[in-house]
Amino acid sequence: MMKQIFGRRKGSKTANKELIGGRRHAVLNQQSSSGVADLSGQQPILSGTGHTYGNGNGIGFPESRLSDAFYSSNFRPLPSIKDMPNTEKQNLFIVKLNMCCTLFDFTDPTRNIKEKKIKVETLLDILDYVKTANAKFPEIVVERITKMISVNLFRTLVIPPREKKVLQAFDLEDDEPLADPAWPHLHLVYELLLNFVQSPETDSKLAKRYVDHSFILRLLELFDSEDPRERDYLKQVLHRIYGKFMVYRPFIRKSINNVFYQFIYETEKHNGIAELLEILGSIINGFALPLKEEHKLSLVRTLIPLHKARCISMYHRQLSYCITQFVEKDAKLTDTIIRGIIKYWPVTNSPKEVLFLTELEDILEATQPSEFQKCIVPVFCQVARCFNSSHFQVAERALFLWNNDRVESLISQNSKTILSIILPALDKNINGHWNPAVQSLSLNVQKLFSEREPEAFAECVLKYEEDKVRKEELKLKQEVAWKRLDEIASAKATSGEAVLVSPSLPRQPSV
Questions:
Q1: Which has the closest alpha carbon to 363: 355, 312, 289?
Q2: How far apart are CA 48 and CA 458, in angstroms?
Q3: Is the distance from CB of 215 to CB of 255 less than 8 angstroms?
Q4: Tens digit of pLDDT for each residue in 93-139?
Q5: Which of 49, 104, 237, 246 is the most exposed, fewest CB within 10 Å of its CB?
Q6: How big is the CA angle at 360 (ends 359 and 361), to the nearest 5 degrees?
Q7: CB proximity list for 206: less than 8 A, separation 6 or greater
Q8: Are 235 and 191 in contact (CB under 8 A)?
């Protein structure tokens, strides 16, 4: 076996170790001199970024793109790790990790076909070794694994212009996602990272020297990838890192919030908001009670302002889940959340209004009766405005709140207060909305109130009629006053007298 592999005579066990060790260093030195990342213990800087990783003892990674001539002469298949003696597996594993630090140009599918295939086979062998490991990974293995992963994954994302797309944010879901041409190799590297992080043989105290703050920040940068497959792997990896490395939990939460800040207040362009919110939803689910002030500030400063983005449809489901988790964790936050959402309620964006109404229903469903009473007025003033929307889907969605048993129970406990707010909107729909379905639903809601509490309903109707009469009288008085002013102004204009114009009124241009 050794003779076939290395072309040497079979020697003693010690000689074999020296032989493979010498072969390993020869391969490393040969690749280093040709442009592959150096493993000699130097600490170069990551090309083009100025970043290093580790706690000062780590290694940076220059980009390893080599010529076709080097590939054809030096990039050759190595034997499978599982076929090697146990004493030699680790050495060959490290050599293979170094081989996989070589990067290929995937924009041209006709180049380096053989070498790309060899790299895929090598990655599969490395992945199998990590999956089947039955002993703790030593530091040199942890270092080489994180090095190879970093070289392959941490790259500059090529993001096509999206300025025009943002204006049509609700059409983005129909766009074809951009697939990374390097995915045949990238997905194996992600699979390796995922298995390495969650492996019981990975010592978190040792691994955190290399999976450090810089490593996590570079992972977060990749969440802006156009490829949904990559974002899905990143979501799993970051979640596993959060679970395994407890010391990094505050840093990860803070870093995710920083991504949200940049999205909300600067760019409004990011592909991975939904995945980050999915991670955050799982984190919120595990919060201990009572909630820390840090978590409440995160809710007010990031999650609620995320409602203002035009492309909210891309991540609304995950955002709504996070918001509802906070309501379930601490009922006293309900009023803050509802008032915050109403602050960002859309005015001219009907599809977004439908999303907000759906989220409002989820929040009300998780609301305690005592907290519901604090926000009745702002909630149903907004719901009443939605009743009268000219977009029938918005009006229907608002009227469908009465189909939810939990919400309807809360309404019935405060029916008199709510009816006095929504009765004018219901009457306007019944007598004038263009959509028959909206008219019918409005009539059903009105009938529900009249049958449940006829006395309260009659009292509200009487008050509403009186208010209508007063408004008509006031409107008539205003019209008479304006007519009188118009007559006075016309009389003075014909007599040549100066007409005093109030500074608050716009001046009319002279004819």
A1: 355
A2: 74
A3: no
A4: 999 999 999 888 888 888 888 888 999 999 999 999 999 998 999 99
A5: 246
A6: 90
A7: 137, 139, 142
A8: no
